[in-house]
Fold this protein.
Amino acid sequence: MARGGATIATIAKEVGVSVPTVSRVLNGRSDVAPATRRRVEEALARHEYRKPVGAASPTKADGLLDLVFHEFGSAWAQEIIVGVEKAAAPRGVGVVLSELGGSHRPPQEWIDSITSRGTRGVLLVLSRLDDTQQRQLTARSIPFVVLDTDGETPAGVPTVGSNNWNGALSATRHLLELGHRRIAVISGPQAVLCSRARVDGFRSAHGEAGLEVDPSLVKWGTFEVAAGYEHGLDLLSRPDRPTAVFAGSDSQALGLIRAAHELGLRVPADVSVVGYDDLPLASWLAPSLTTVRQPLSEMAALATQMLMTLSDGQPLASQKVELGTELIVRESTAPPTA
């Protein structure tokens, strides 16, 4: 029911359609004309209509939640999946995986499909809904939580993340304390919030030390191996190459180390490398990787628990949760060669 007391019947009367038509729109049925659907959606949004939690529905899927990645296939994504499964399995809830092909917002067709199928809730990883999509899910009492948001989320949207700024600050401080003064950073997409936060932490550590950051040593890309490799070749081929590189992910660090080996450079004797995430592979590399531990599986489990709380019709203790990070020092960093 809407905040103002509007029901499906009053909305149907206002729009000039039947009650079953409004019901079909709410349930994601495709047998409604686009113009009619648009008018009904506008009325639902105008009245802030919200389907009662637990209302009977032939399409309601109480045993499923939707986990949406902008892209997956990496070890990083696997850590997220493990955390979600750990929290969902004891509740007897299955997980439906969706991948957005690199986009950070699901298409409307995807929203229509989960509305039709039904879901206990939606967990979005490095992606988000636009205002219209948020209203559509809210009207149907489908809760959503954002994990590691790609940008600033509107007030009231539950989010779980980690302290990216502090993680980057500690990584860069470590390199500065070792004596490095020419340090590069490779981050993720510049439009993504966590990427910018890590570069900000990198800059802040330099500011603390009274040092300027060379803009040509700040690189943006993806968080994948290829970005680390390509930027690594560029940075380490320079006559004034950096003596250390802070990579925005362990995958980037892996590509960076490959580039260093191809150029005949030793890690850490010729270039120190710090990664981010502390994926399982980090401790198995040779040399083992100094990295910032981001509690990915814990973040995912917490986000899933928050989603379950919302789907049970209960309020959250906090709308925004930020977990801490920890620098793990291993073998890939050392003082610069004199």
Q: What stands out?
A: The chain is about 40% helix and 15% strand. The first helix runs from residue 8 to 15. The CA atoms of residues 98 and 110 lie 9 Å apart.
